[in-house]
Amino acid sequence: MAKIITVTSGKGGVGKTTTTAALGAALARTGDKVVVVDFDVGLRNLDLIMGAERRVVYDFVNVIQGDARLPQALIKDKRLDSLFLLPASQTRDKDALTEEGVDKVIEDLSRHFDWVICDSPAGIERGATLAMRHADIAVVVTNPEVSSVRDSDRIVGILDSKTLKAERGETVDKRLLLTRYDAVRAARGDMLKTEDVLDILSLPLLGIVPESPDVLRASNFGVPVSIHDPDSAPARAYNDAARRLKGEDLAVEVPKQKLGLFGKFLRRAA
Ligand SMILES: Nc1ncnc2c1ncn2[C@@H]1O[C@H](COP(=O)(O)OP(=O)(O)O)[C@@H](O)[C@H]1O
Ligand SMILES: [Mg+2]
After folding, report:
1. Which contiguous run of DSSP H or E holds residue 86?
2. Is 17 in the pocket of ligand 1 (CB under 6 A)?
3. Residue 56 in contact with residue 47, Cβ under 8 Å?
4. What SS3 class is residue 169?
5. Is 32 near ligand 1, meaning CB less than 6 Å away?
6. Where would I find the CobQ/CobB/MinD/ParA nucleotide binding domain in this sequence (predicted)?
7. What is the CA(226)–ligand 1 centre distance, in A?
8. What are the φ/ψ torsions at residue 238 (nearest 5 degrees)?
9. Predicted model pTM
């Protein structure tokens, strides 16, 4: 049976889809069988980030509505043999995902994969609660800013009340992934410090992903950032996070401020 991960946040634009693709590829790279599932009906971002947008024929909603069988909708990754994508539908009908339909698809997937990673839409509405319903582990993606932390805190409340685990009296294993962490702005005090975010949310830290142009570059190539340039700082952060998900006890590094030429000049001038 698969471990089911939901990548969630409440707020949009914090890095959920980037994280889903990056963790999926990082886990598949170790040989595990992984499927990433796009719950963001109408937006369809995950297929773009995975570079699979031209291969989408059938999607999640087609499977639920019985127009396609699950294997027809799964897209195999071009680079990693054990990585698959179940794309979202472009329909405008947000109610196209039904609870029974989602239950059946996730149960099917969990029989065939080691990891099922659900990419949640923004908000706390139906799409987000459907995405977290089956979660064993929730990766709460948070940026070091007040609005993001506040929305993550709301999501934690929902994870503790509206999931299948909560209904059974169990708890979802919640991990904080701090993303878009900018060491320069943190040093200036323009961003919340890691300790402050940890204090407020009080969740175990899965990792800290730095703000980096490598993320946009990888997404322009349609390659998950964790495998695009594995030596880049965000790739290392995501690969380490995947190792922690697999149970390794690795210390989390807080990204340091790297001074470019301009920064060195400014420091000298100061
Ligand atoms: N670590 C990062 N550094 C720089 N840009 C990032 C980082 N993580 C995400 N982004 C950018 O932020 C935007 C939103 O990311 P996305 O993963 O789509 O967020 P969400 O799924 O939460 O809406 C995208 O343009 C993405 O390239
Ligand atoms: Mg997204």
Report:
1. strand 83-86
2. yes
3. yes
4. coil
5. no
6. 5-225
7. 13
8. -70, -40
9. 0.94
